[in-house]
Design brief:
The structure is a single chain. Helix content is 31%, strand content 22%. By secondary structure, the protein is of the alpha+beta class. It has two domains: 283 residues, FAD/NAD(P)-binding domain; 103 residues, no CATH class. Strands 1, 2, 5, 6, 7, 8 and 19 form a seven-stranded mixed sheet that branches. A four-stranded antiparallel sheet has the order 11-12-10-13, covered by helices on one side. It has a two-stranded antiparallel ribbon with strand order 3-4. Helix 1 links the parallel strand 1 and strand 2. It is globular, with a radius of gyration of 21 Å. 55% of the residues are buried.
Length: 421
């Protein structure tokens, strides 16, 4: 098998966690390569077509230099690219995709799209790289430290790490969509109760539609974006099972069309001429397979706002098992131990594959929080390089010092988020 290249830090997955990891490492001078299987970066932020990037500025306050770098690159394209809420960014996704590239270029991070990691290189219990599928066949990338931001912990799984899966608690997967040819102001006045009633009337004719859905202003003067319950009515589908994932993807395409036709036939007047203009390039997957690490973040940690001596990030927002359970929580720390696999060396994980119980993973799963754990993993990787140590051997105090130097306040645990609506 041919080798494509070597690098200091290899980040697998170009969603929010991977972006944070790549920026965090490259800003500290590490030769960093970011791999993404799609043709663009952003992950859920990009392929969910306008879903807000939550918890980027909680309470309107900057949370790190890395978060702000992404925001700055978006703002450079003006109000067509991004709008701000109390904590979230509403992005026009095509600008977002370019803004991420701009940020990576600024810090000197190398990147490859259309490079799908399909296996892991392991030597004597240490992860030393990945195998990627390319148009020239399978190729290897070797690295001193690998950061798994693949979403489902693919790199750790391929390496034989113990994984955490809770099939009875699966949140649905969702294919988001955009509609146009609606009166935006009138559509914004439609209540969720009206949408639920419409879905009930329409279900006999359109059986795949979810129980109801909301309409959200897209960063465009003419479009609305829809996030919804997706596969909730299809039963539990495992997104890591090839047949189940294929079923979810294909049924969701039919579902999207049925939703639009239901709005045209049964919806309130502002939706009667709605037109479908886009659905995401892939289904959105909520927490599923995670890596068993040195500590599993729990529901109790989130609900009590727990602080940890080895905190390297914090998570704000809601305990949100998508369209299943939605509750308030407190801001809580993420301990470094959640980023370190129980047995493998040479590997860190960030984002939704970090070590947590299922409910713990769903508490504060927002993209801004994923970017924060990625940022910490990127800084930890650079310390491994500088000191010739494995991730589990690092002095966490040094990671914390590096985070503070990057503008991270590690004293937020226990905040009751009065500003959050």
């Amino acid at each position: 098998m041919r080798q494509l290249c070597e690098t200091d830090v290899l980040v697998v997955g170009g969603g929010p966690a991977g972006i944070g990891a790549a920026l965090g490492a490259a800003r500290r001078g590490a030769r960093t390569l970011l791999l993404e299987k799609h043709a663009f970066f952003g992950g859920t932020a990009s392929f969910c077509l306008g879903m807000p990037i939550n918890q980027m500025r909680p309470g309107g306050k900057a949370r790190s230099d890395v978060h702000e770098l992404v925001i700055d690159k978006l703002q450079a394209y003006g109000e067509r690219a991004v709008m701000f809420g109390e904590h979230e960014l509403w992005c026009q996704v095509e600008y977002l995709k370019v803004a991420v590239i701009d940020a990576l270029d600024e810090v000197g991070c190398r990147y490859l799209v259309r490079a799908h990691a399909v296996d892991t290189l392991v030597e004597d219990g240490r992860v030393v790289g990945a195998v990627i599928a390319t148009k020239r066949g399978l190729m290897t990338v070797r690295a001193q430290v690998v950061i798994d931001c693949s979403g489902d912990g693919d790199i750790a799984y391929f390496a034989g790490a113990e994984m955490l899966v809770d099939p009875d608690e699966a949140a649905p997967m969702t294919l988001c969509l955009n509609i146009t040819n609606v009166d935006i102001e009138e559509a914004n006045r439609i209540s969720r109760a009206e949408m639920d009633a419409m879905a009930e009337r329409a279900r006999a004719e359109y059986p795949l539609i979810p129980a109801g859905w909301g309409l959200t202003r897209f960063p465009s003067s003419t479009c609305l974006t829809i996030n919804h319950g997706g596969t909730k009515g299809f039963g539990v589908l495992d997104p890591t099972d090839p047949e189940a994932l294929s079923e979810a993807e294909c049924q969701s395409r039919r579902q999207v069309v049925q939703m639009v036709e239901a709005m045209r036939a049964y919806g309130p007047e502002p939706l009667r001429d709605a037109e479908l203009i886009a659905a995401g390039p892939q289904i959105g997957i909520r927490p599923w397979r995670r890596v068993k690490g040195l500590y599993q973040l729990s529901e109790e940690d989130a609900k009590t706002g727990r602080a940890f001596d080895d905190a390297i990030a914090w998570r704000s927002g809601f305990l949100d098992i998508g369209f299943v359970r939605y509750e308030r929580m407190l801001v809580h720390d993420v301990p470094y131990r959640c980023l370190v696999p129980e047995s493998l060396d040479g590997l860190l994980m960030a984002g939704r594959a970090m070590s947590a119980t299922y409910v713990g993973a769903s508490a504060g799963k927002s993209m801004g929080n994923c970017l924060a754990t990625g940022h910490a993993a990127g800084l930890a990787a650079t310390l491994c390089l500088q000191q010739g140590r494995q991730p589990r051997e690092l002095d966490v105090g040094q990671i914390q010092d590096a985070l503070r130097a990057d503008g991270v306040d590690l004293t937020r645990s226990g905040d009751d988020q009065e500003w959050l609506t």
